[in-house]
Amino acid sequence: MTVAEELQNALNGAKPVLVEFYADWCPHCKAMMPIVAELKKETADKAVVVQIEGDENADIMNKYHVRSYPTWILFKDGQEAWRDSGEKPLSELKDMINRFA
């Protein structure tokens, strides 16, 4: 399954989808890796968290007009409901998921 197919399957599901666009070379993205891993564990019953490596998926980056790393987009019912960029604390990401779950 391609990254685009994985994302589309998640967007077609019932749960909100939080997408993190990241790059392997990005220090802020590297700092977020353990936070995203914990977020996936703590919110698995409420949302789907998808990580997309932007340099390998330029078509998806362009589709969603992502220009910086890390960029976060939360989708509810397949539509963009929230967007931000930069490092985020676990609590802020969990609050955003809870707001739309």
Give a description of the structure:
The chain is α+β, with helices and mostly antiparallel strands. The chain has one domain (3-100): Glutaredoxin, CATH 3.40.30. 44% of the residues lie in helices and 25% in strands. It is built from 4 helices and 4 strands. It has a 4-stranded mixed β-sheet, with helices on both faces. α2 (27-43) links the parallel β1 (17-22) and β2 (48-53). α2 (27-43) packs across α4 (90-100). It starts with a helix and ends with a helix. The model has no long low-confidence stretch (mean pLDDT 97).
Distinctive features:
101 residues, alpha+beta, Glutaredoxin, four-stranded mixed β-sheet, 4 helices, 44% helix
**What is the terminal-to-terminal distance?**
26 Å
Give the CATH H-level superfamily: Glutaredoxin
User: How are helices and strands ordered from N to C?
Assistant: HEHEHEEH
Q: What percentage of the residues does DSSP assign to strands (E)?
A: 15-25%
Largest sheet: 4 strands, mixed
What top-tier CATH class fits best? Alpha Beta
- Please list the strands of the largest sheet in the order they lie side by side: 2-1-3-4
In a nutshell, what does this entry contain?
By secondary structure, the chain is an alpha+beta fold. The protein has one domain (3-100): Glutaredoxin, CATH 3.40.30.10. It has helices spanning 3-12, 27-43, 58-63, 90-100, and strands at 17-22, 48-53, 71-76, 79-85.
